């Protein structure tokens, strides 16, 4: 019988100003085991796993975290610790082109992909690997681009090997201005020109290599402590840094969003959590999909894009919504 323990936050944001707390979080992450996986096209990506914390409760379920664009798996150290302490085995993926996974050449800072389906193919392999390591109920928790990857994976497979899926600030649509069809045409044209005239990918105008933006200029979170923590992390580990996207990435991402909106409805329990003040993804696309597919959706008012790295009050609201939903998904407690 499926049982998902309630997720409980372990840290307050201001604790991240304490070097001892940061060191403890770092030590927790260092105990994760990194497994290098190779996709069907030979690209190397990474899966990180940890099955328990000494002295804490026995795991009753497993959690697979699917990060968003730019993100390294390490960025989810706080959430991973929350989940471990709550009674989950934890798995986190480094997508191709991100974190410590294989990067595009000749510019490893470029967010690029030859086909968006490659991400979902990689996730399929990662889920299979997770299932080879645990038989516990498996919950997938995805953020932003990771949500698009997870949803497309669920659309592509008749046997998802997952028991439930949560999409946080999902990239089910990308803001493209008042003329979305024209934007899709321009993206397609530019990626074709790029392929014809240049081996290196072209950044979408206004984007470039990684920038360490100050908190005042960020559109991701209202938590200065959490924002500074992951910015410091990316300074400490320069290999995690990633810049803007290529025209090819944008073209394939827009195609994936169309497939999400028009494709089959996955047969697993699903929850959408929406950031009310999100400017990174298209909230109307989330509303449209939720209405068409009868997916439960909750909005965290005034929250910015990174719900899982928001203020303490926002994270508590996120966890409360997840826990109430998990109670309804579960069929009863089990060992």
Task: Describe what this molecule looks like in 3D.
With 335 residues, the protein is an alpha/beta fold. It has one domain: 3-Layer(aba) Sandwich (Rossmann fold). Helix content is 38%, strand content 14%. The protein contains nine helices and eight strands. It has helices spanning 19-30, 77-86, 117-133, 145-156, 180-197, 224-236, 247-262, 283-293, 312-329, and strands at 33-38, 44-50, 61-66, 88-94, 138-143, 164-168, 270-275, 296-300. The protein has an eight-stranded mixed beta sheet with strand order 1-2-4-3-5-6-7-8, with helices on both faces. Helix 4 (145-156) links the parallel strand 5 (138-143) and strand 6. The longest helix has 18 residues, at 180-197. It is globular, with a radius of gyration of 19 Å. The relative contact order is 0.16. The mean pLDDT is 94.
Name of the level-1 CATH class: Alpha Beta
Report helical residue fraction.
Answer: 25-40%
Largest sheet, in brief, is: 8 strands, mixed
Cα-atom Rg, whole angstroms? 19 Å
CATH H-level superfamily: Alpha/Beta hydrolase fold, catalytic domain
Mean pLDDT: 94
The CATH topology annotation reads as Rossmann fold
Portion in beta strands: 5-15%
In spatial order, strands of the major sheet run 1-2-4-3-5-6-7-8
Can you tell me the residue ranges where pLDDT is under 50 for at least 5 consecutive residues? Answer: none
Question: What is the β-strand count?
Answer: 8
Put simply, the count of helices is: 9
Structural class by helix and strand composition:
alpha/beta
Q: Can you write the helix and strand succession as a string?
A: HEEEHEHEHEHHHEHEH
Task: Just name the CATH architecture.
Answer: 3-Layer(aba) Sandwich
- Ends: how far apart? 9 Å
Q: Estimate nothing, just give the exact number of structural domains.
A: 1
Anisotropy-based shape? globular
Keywords: Hydrolase
Domain Serine aminopeptidase S33: 58-309
Protein name: Alpha/beta fold hydrolase
GO molecular function: hydrolase activity
């Amino acid at each position: 019988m499926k049982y998902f323990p309630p997720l409980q936050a372990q840290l307050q944001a201001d604790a991240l100003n304490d070097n001892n707390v940061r060191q403890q979080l770092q030590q927790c992450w260092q105990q994760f085991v990194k497994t290098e996986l190779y996709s069907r096209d030979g690209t190397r990506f990474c899966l990180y796993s940890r099955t328990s914390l000494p002295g804490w409760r026995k795991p009753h379920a497993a959690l697979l975290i699917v990060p968003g664009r730019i993100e390294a798996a390490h960025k989810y150290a706080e959430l991973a610790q929350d989940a471990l302490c709550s009674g989950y085995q934890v798995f986190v993926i480094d997508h191709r082109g991100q974190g410590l996974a294989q990067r595009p050449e000749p510019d490893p800072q470029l967010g690029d992909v030859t086909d968006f389906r490659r991400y979902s193919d990689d996730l399929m392999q990662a889920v299979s690997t997770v299932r080879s390591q645990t038989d516990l109920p498996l919950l997938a928790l995805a953020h932003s681009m990771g949500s698009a990857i997870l949803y497309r994976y669920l659309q592509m497979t008749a046997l998802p090997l997952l028991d439930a899926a949560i999409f946080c600030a999902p990239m089910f649509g990308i803001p493209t201005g008042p003329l979305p069809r024209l934007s899709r045409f321009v993206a397609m044209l530019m990626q074709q020109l790029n392929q014809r005239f240049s081996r290196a990918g072209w950044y979408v105008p206004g984007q470039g290599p990684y920038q360490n933006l100050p908190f005042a200029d960020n559109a991701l979170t209202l938590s200065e402590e959490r924002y500074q923590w992951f910015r410091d992390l990316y300074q400490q580990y320069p290999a995690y840094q990633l810049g803007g996207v290529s025209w090819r990435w944008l073209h394939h991402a827009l195609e994936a969003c169309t497939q999400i909106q028009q494709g089959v409805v996955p047969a697993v329990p699903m929850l959408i959590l929406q950031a009310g003040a999100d400017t990174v993804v298209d909230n109307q696309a989330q509303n449209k999909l939720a209405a068409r597919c009868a997916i439960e959706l909750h909005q965290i008012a005034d929250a910015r894009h990174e719900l899982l790295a928001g203020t303490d009050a926002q994270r508590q609201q996120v966890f409360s919504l997840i826990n109430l939903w998990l109670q309804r998904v579960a069929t009863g407690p089990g060992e």
